[in-house]
Design brief:
The protein is an alpha/beta fold. Helix content is 44%, strand content 18%. The protein has eight helices and nine strands. The strands form two sheets. A five-stranded parallel β-sheet has the order 2-7-1-8-9, with helices on both faces. A four-stranded mixed β-sheet has the order 4-3-6-5. It is globular.
Protein backbone atom coordinates (compact mmCIF):
# COMPACT_ATOMS: atom_id res chain seq x y z
CA UNK A 1 0.00 0.00 0.00
CA UNK A 2 1.39 3.45 -0.91
CA UNK A 3 2.59 5.56 2.00
CA UNK A 4 -0.08 8.20 1.36
CA UNK A 5 -2.81 5.57 1.65
CA UNK A 6 -1.39 4.44 5.01
CA UNK A 7 -1.34 8.04 6.23
CA UNK A 8 -4.89 8.62 5.04
CA UNK A 9 -6.06 5.48 6.88
CA UNK A 10 -4.27 6.64 10.04
CA UNK A 11 -5.95 10.04 10.04
CA UNK A 12 -9.31 8.53 9.17
CA UNK A 13 -8.98 6.35 12.27
CA UNK A 14 -7.91 9.29 14.45
CA UNK A 15 -10.81 11.49 13.34
CA UNK A 16 -13.52 8.81 13.42
CA UNK A 17 -16.09 9.09 16.24
CA UNK A 18 -15.02 7.27 19.41
CA UNK A 19 -18.15 6.95 21.54
CA UNK A 20 -17.63 5.45 24.99
CA UNK A 21 -19.83 3.38 27.25
CA UNK A 22 -19.21 4.94 30.66
CA UNK A 23 -20.34 3.38 33.92
CA UNK A 24 -20.80 5.79 36.83
CA UNK A 25 -21.24 3.75 39.97
CA UNK A 26 -20.59 3.63 43.69
CA UNK A 27 -22.46 3.19 46.99
CA UNK A 28 -25.53 5.14 48.05
CA UNK A 29 -24.76 8.58 49.39
CA UNK A 30 -21.77 9.41 47.18
CA UNK A 31 -23.60 11.75 44.78
CA UNK A 32 -24.09 9.77 41.56
CA UNK A 33 -27.33 11.56 40.74
CA UNK A 34 -25.77 14.95 41.57
CA UNK A 35 -22.85 14.31 39.22
CA UNK A 36 -25.17 13.26 36.38
CA UNK A 37 -27.42 16.30 36.97
CA UNK A 38 -24.44 18.66 36.97
CA UNK A 39 -23.16 17.17 33.71
CA UNK A 40 -26.59 17.93 32.21
CA UNK A 41 -26.47 21.44 33.68
CA UNK A 42 -23.10 22.06 32.04
CA UNK A 43 -24.44 20.91 28.69
CA UNK A 44 -22.12 17.91 28.45
CA UNK A 45 -23.22 15.98 25.33
CA UNK A 46 -24.00 12.37 26.14
CA UNK A 47 -26.80 9.96 25.28
CA UNK A 48 -29.45 9.50 27.96
CA UNK A 49 -30.52 5.87 27.97
CA UNK A 50 -34.22 5.23 28.56
CA UNK A 51 -34.70 2.39 31.06
CA UNK A 52 -37.37 -0.30 30.77
CA UNK A 53 -39.65 -0.55 33.80
CA UNK A 54 -42.62 -2.68 34.84
CA UNK A 55 -44.10 -0.15 37.26
CA UNK A 56 -47.22 1.82 36.37
CA UNK A 57 -46.87 5.00 34.34
CA UNK A 58 -47.35 8.07 36.55
CA UNK A 59 -49.21 11.26 35.56
CA UNK A 60 -47.02 13.46 33.40
CA UNK A 61 -44.60 10.67 32.44
CA UNK A 62 -44.07 9.94 28.76
CA UNK A 63 -43.55 6.39 27.53
CA UNK A 64 -40.28 6.14 25.62
CA UNK A 65 -38.95 9.33 27.18
CA UNK A 66 -39.09 8.86 30.96
CA UNK A 67 -39.16 5.05 30.78
CA UNK A 68 -40.10 2.30 28.40
CA UNK A 69 -43.17 1.06 30.30
CA UNK A 70 -43.57 -2.68 29.74
CA UNK A 71 -45.57 -5.49 31.25
CA UNK A 72 -43.86 -8.03 33.46
CA UNK A 73 -44.36 -10.59 30.68
CA UNK A 74 -42.57 -8.32 28.21
CA UNK A 75 -39.78 -7.75 30.70
CA UNK A 76 -39.40 -11.50 31.23
CA UNK A 77 -39.15 -11.97 27.45
CA UNK A 78 -36.40 -9.32 27.30
CA UNK A 79 -34.45 -11.26 29.95
CA UNK A 80 -34.88 -14.56 28.11
CA UNK A 81 -33.83 -13.00 24.81
CA UNK A 82 -30.76 -11.49 26.54
CA UNK A 83 -31.80 -8.01 25.43
CA UNK A 84 -31.04 -6.37 28.78
CA UNK A 85 -27.60 -5.11 29.70
CA UNK A 86 -28.49 -5.34 33.38
CA UNK A 87 -31.67 -5.49 35.44
CA UNK A 88 -32.80 -5.40 39.06
CA UNK A 89 -35.84 -5.35 41.31
CA UNK A 90 -36.53 -1.86 42.67
CA UNK A 91 -39.24 -1.58 45.32
CA UNK A 92 -41.02 -4.64 43.95
CA UNK A 93 -40.88 -3.60 40.30
CA UNK A 94 -38.34 -4.53 37.61
CA UNK A 95 -36.04 -2.07 35.89
CA UNK A 96 -33.44 -2.78 33.25
CA UNK A 97 -31.24 -1.21 30.59
CA UNK A 98 -32.16 -2.40 27.06
CA UNK A 99 -29.15 -3.19 24.88
CA UNK A 100 -31.04 -1.56 22.00
CA UNK A 101 -30.89 1.78 23.83
CA UNK A 102 -27.13 1.52 24.31
CA UNK A 103 -26.61 0.51 20.67
CA UNK A 104 -28.72 3.49 19.57
CA UNK A 105 -26.69 5.86 21.73
CA UNK A 106 -23.30 4.60 20.54
CA UNK A 107 -24.47 4.67 16.90
CA UNK A 108 -25.28 8.37 17.35
CA UNK A 109 -21.60 9.01 18.06
CA UNK A 110 -22.30 10.25 21.58
CA UNK A 111 -20.95 8.75 24.77
CA UNK A 112 -23.43 6.64 26.72
CA UNK A 113 -23.20 7.29 30.47
CA UNK A 114 -24.96 4.79 32.74
CA UNK A 115 -25.61 5.54 36.40
CA UNK A 116 -25.93 2.13 38.07
CA UNK A 117 -25.24 0.45 41.38
CA UNK A 118 -22.13 -1.65 41.98
CA UNK A 119 -23.88 -4.93 41.14
CA UNK A 120 -25.20 -3.45 37.90
CA UNK A 121 -21.71 -2.23 37.01
CA UNK A 122 -20.35 -5.77 37.33
CA UNK A 123 -23.11 -7.15 35.11
CA UNK A 124 -22.42 -4.54 32.43
CA UNK A 125 -18.66 -5.13 32.49
CA UNK A 126 -19.22 -8.87 32.01
CA UNK A 127 -21.08 -8.13 28.75
CA UNK A 128 -19.12 -5.05 27.66
CA UNK A 129 -15.54 -5.26 28.96
CA UNK A 130 -14.64 -2.18 26.88
CA UNK A 131 -16.86 -0.03 29.11
CA UNK A 132 -15.09 2.58 31.24
CA UNK A 133 -15.99 2.02 34.88
CA UNK A 134 -15.76 4.97 37.28
CA UNK A 135 -16.26 4.44 41.01
CA UNK A 136 -17.63 7.50 42.78
CA UNK A 137 -17.08 7.80 46.53
CA UNK A 138 -17.31 10.30 49.36
CA UNK A 139 -14.12 11.54 51.00
CA UNK A 140 -14.61 9.13 53.92
CA UNK A 141 -16.97 6.45 55.19
CA UNK A 142 -18.13 8.88 57.89
CA UNK A 143 -19.09 11.45 55.25
CA UNK A 144 -20.98 8.84 53.22
CA UNK A 145 -22.94 7.65 56.28
CA UNK A 146 -23.69 11.24 57.31
CA UNK A 147 -25.17 11.92 53.87
CA UNK A 148 -27.38 8.85 54.06
CA UNK A 149 -28.62 9.78 57.52
CA UNK A 150 -29.16 13.37 56.42
CA UNK A 151 -31.69 12.31 53.79
CA UNK A 152 -34.19 11.30 56.50
CA UNK A 153 -36.23 9.40 53.93
CA UNK A 154 -36.10 5.90 55.48
CA UNK A 155 -36.98 4.20 58.73
CA UNK A 156 -34.06 3.13 60.98
CA UNK A 157 -34.11 -0.49 59.75
CA UNK A 158 -33.92 0.37 56.07
CA UNK A 159 -31.30 3.02 56.77
CA UNK A 160 -29.14 0.51 58.63
CA UNK A 161 -29.41 -1.91 55.70
CA UNK A 162 -28.51 0.81 53.19
CA UNK A 163 -25.44 1.78 55.25
CA UNK A 164 -24.34 -1.87 55.57
CA UNK A 165 -24.75 -2.37 51.81
CA UNK A 166 -22.78 0.79 51.06
CA UNK A 167 -19.91 -0.42 53.25
CA UNK A 168 -19.87 -3.74 51.40
CA UNK A 169 -19.85 -1.97 48.02
CA UNK A 170 -16.83 0.12 49.03
CA UNK A 171 -14.83 -3.11 49.16
CA UNK A 172 -15.42 -3.65 45.42
CA UNK A 173 -13.43 -0.60 44.36
CA UNK A 174 -10.75 -2.78 42.73
CA UNK A 175 -13.30 -3.91 40.10
CA UNK A 176 -13.28 -0.42 38.55
CA UNK A 177 -10.90 1.49 36.27
CA UNK A 178 -11.01 4.85 38.05
CA UNK A 179 -12.05 6.36 41.37
CA UNK A 180 -13.38 9.91 41.78
CA UNK A 181 -13.84 11.44 45.23
CA UNK A 182 -16.94 13.64 45.47
CA UNK A 183 -16.14 15.80 48.50
CA UNK A 184 -18.76 17.92 50.24
CA UNK A 185 -19.10 21.25 48.47
CA UNK A 186 -16.79 20.24 45.61
CA UNK A 187 -19.20 18.82 43.03
CA UNK A 188 -17.59 20.91 40.27
CA UNK A 189 -14.25 19.22 40.88
CA UNK A 190 -15.77 15.73 40.89
CA UNK A 191 -17.48 16.40 37.55
CA UNK A 192 -14.26 17.89 36.15
CA UNK A 193 -12.43 14.66 37.00
CA UNK A 194 -15.14 12.50 35.42
CA UNK A 195 -14.95 14.55 32.21
CA UNK A 196 -11.14 14.36 32.23
CA UNK A 197 -11.36 10.56 32.42
CA UNK A 198 -13.80 10.48 29.50
CA UNK A 199 -11.53 12.72 27.42
CA UNK A 200 -8.45 10.59 28.18
CA UNK A 201 -10.26 7.35 27.34
CA UNK A 202 -11.41 8.72 24.01
CA UNK A 203 -7.77 9.55 23.16
CA UNK A 204 -6.43 6.05 23.86
CA UNK A 205 -4.39 4.47 21.09
CA UNK A 206 -5.92 1.11 21.97
CA UNK A 207 -9.53 2.38 22.05
CA UNK A 208 -12.03 -0.37 21.25
CA UNK A 209 -15.63 -0.02 20.16
CA UNK A 210 -18.27 -1.56 22.40
CA UNK A 211 -20.03 -4.48 20.72
CA UNK A 212 -23.34 -5.72 22.14
Amino acid sequence: MPETDVTDDLYATIHAPRPLLVILSGPSGVGKDAVMAHMHHLGVPFYQVVTAATRSQRPGEIDGQDYHFVTIEQFAAMIEQKELLEHAVVYGDYKGIPKSEVRKGLASGLDVVLRVDVQGAAAIRSLAPQAVAIFLTASSEEEMVARLRGRQTEDPGRLAMRIATAREELRRLSEFDYVVVNRDGQLDEAVRQVLAIITAERCRVDWEAVVL
